[in-house]
Amino acid sequence: MTQILLVEDNELNADMLMRRLKKRGYEVHLATDGEQAADMTAALLPKLVLMDISLPLIDGCEATRRIRANPSTAAVPIIALTAHALPYERTRALQAGCDDYDTKPIELDRLLGKMTAMLAKK
Questions:
Q1: Residue 60: which domain range?
Q2: How many domains does the chain have?
């Protein structure tokens, strides 16, 4: 089972996406803020991180920078998830070190396609 880390502070969004991903065979762990995301990535070494950008404590971009700065987690693929669809937000997430970007509300087939492609590269 492929282990992924979902970083999402909205309880309803997290529950919905976790259930849908688990149905498709993923082992899903949840972090609800940016600090927890960086810590859990180091502890779990997941195959993929789905990173919300708007998070408490530190945002998803800063959490991504911390993940990239840690040699043990630097290569973990990260897909940014955000409700902000402006080109600036995409650029900001990619510059922080995210490998890909997807918008909310989540279109599951599109996200699964990105996840499959990202996991195949690893």
A1: 3-121
A2: 1
Three-state helix/strand/coil letters over the chain:
CCEEEEECCCHHHHHHHHHHHHHCCCEEEEECCHHHHHHHHHHHCCCEEEEECCCCCCCHHHHHHHHHHCCCCCCCCEEEEECCCCHHHHHHHHHHCCCEEEECCCCHHHHHHHHHHHHHHC
What is the CATH classification number for the domain harbouring 78? 3.40.50.2300
pLDDT at 122 over 70: no
The mean pLDDT of 67-93, rounded to a whole number, is 92
